[in-house]
From TrEMBL, chains A, B:
Record-given protein name: Polysaccharide biosynthesis protein
Domain (ABM) ranges: 21-81
SUPFAM superfamilies for this protein: Dimeric alpha+beta barrel
Residues spanning the membrane: none
InterPro entries assigned: ABM_dom, Dimeric_a/b-barrel, Jasmonate_Hydroxylase-like
Family matches, as Pfam families: ABM
Taxonomic lineage: Bacteria, Bacillati, Bacillota, Bacilli, Bacillales
Length: 114, 114
């Protein structure tokens, strides 16, 4: 499991992938692990956040739209996408976004006086 | 639990809220339910998707940056945000995004011939 992605200052890009799975694994867990490792080695990859609770949400972060396009066309990733449609997903939605602004909070990072 | 949000054609806006919780509930579940109901009644609200698996990811969708700003300043929501910092979250990150493009897949909606 990943934590919160350590992304740079905006602007950068996000791909929000929301999905509902079919029943059973059917090779999903293994491929998901492979895809995550592969994503980390892609040019322009900035990080990924993922959670599933019935609904699955995976948000990956990228330097540019070109980096997103290259990842979508990666040979192994194309195979995963095809198997996603045939075996793993009942439904999904992919949203390509430009992150315009961000802010955060860390409990232990708060100064006592500011 | 929600499914995949039924958002309109882009462009629209997304707020990606990624968080790590403190231990224990401390009123969190009740407030989360109240905030979700309240969000649905806000002008410009388009939908929300949420999952927690250790890491929590909530993505809310909005018609405009103004709608996002109004929600952030909602009186009850301000109280929830404050309690979030004091009680519920070890860490969070909020990212304001413009959704530029989206596409989806539905297993049962696929035509046999196309």
């Amino acid at each position: 499991m990943n934590g919160i992605a350590r992304t740079p200052e905006p602007p950068y890009y996000a791909v929000i992938f929301t999905s509902e799975r079919t029943d059973g694994d059917q090779g999903y867990a293994e491929m998901a692990e492979e895809m995550e490792k592969l994503a980390y080695s892609q040019p322009g990859f900035l990080g990924v956040e993922s959670a599933r609770e019935g609904l699955g949400i995976t948000v990956s972060y990228w330097e540019s739209l070109e980096a997103i396009k290259n990842w979508k066309q990666n040979e192994r990733h194309l195979i995963a996408q095809q198997q996603g449609k045939s075996d793993w997903y009942l439904e999904y939605k992919t949203r390509i976004c430009k992150v315009e602004r961000d802010y955060g909070f860390e409990k232990n990072a708060e100064p006592f006086h500011k």
